[in-house]
Amino acid sequence: MEHVHGVDGRRVELFLYVPGKNTLRRGCVPVGKDSVYTARHEIVLKPGDQITLSPGTKHWFQAPAGGAVIYSFSTCVRDGLDRFTDPAVRRRLWTTLSRNRRIG
Q1: Scanning 23, 51, 59, 82, which has its CA 20 to 30 A from the CA of 72?
Q2: Cβ pair 36, 89 in contact under 8 A
Q3: Quick check: 60 and 15 in contact, CB under 8 A?
Q4: d(CA 104, CA 90)
Q5: pTM
Q6: Phi and psi (nearest 5°) for 96?
Q7: Separation between Cα atoms, residue 72 and residue 52, nearest integer Å
Q8: Per residue, what are the HEC states of 41-99?
Q9: Of 52, 55, 54, the residue nearest 81 (C-alpha)
Q10: How does pLDDT run along the chain (104 residues), one tens digit per residue?
């Protein structure tokens, strides 16, 4: 169905961090995570901006205090194979939810 997004007047930004020169200014590395958040080149994404990252590019996002919404599209979605640089991150599978929820 045809529709329009972003008509509430808010101009939210999203901060994207990739490898490169350390230009981190608007966001911040989570406390105690300096060694695992190594991508520090800050890119400020505004509503409507798009970016393409090559496979294997380390990256992370941070929203300002008001939050943000992001959509991710992939030619081949394989999020389950993502490798996190923080060994404390554990991927949780939602198989129970998908088995028990009926749509339609």
Answers
A1: 23
A2: no
A3: no
A4: 32
A5: 0.74
A6: -60, -45
A7: 10
A8: EEEEECCCCCCCCCCCCCCEEECCCCCCCCCCCCCCCCHHHCCCCCCCCCCCCCHHHHH
A9: 55
A10: 676 665 566 667 899 999 999 999 999 999 999 999 999 999 999 888 889 988 889 999 999 888 887 777 777 767 677 788 888 888 776 555 455 555 54
The amino acid at 12: V
Q: In this structure, what token pair is assigned to residue 41?
A: 């080149």
- Distances from the Cα of 98 to the Cαs of 34, 47, 70, in angstroms? 35, 32, 23
Which residue, among 37, 4, 3, has the nearest Cα to 18 in the 3D structure?
37
The b/e string for 27-38 (b: 16+ C-beta within 10 A; e otherwise) is bebeeeeeeebe
What is the chain's length? 104
* Residues 35, 85: Cα–Cα separation, whole Å: 9
Structure token digits, residue 52: 């393409």
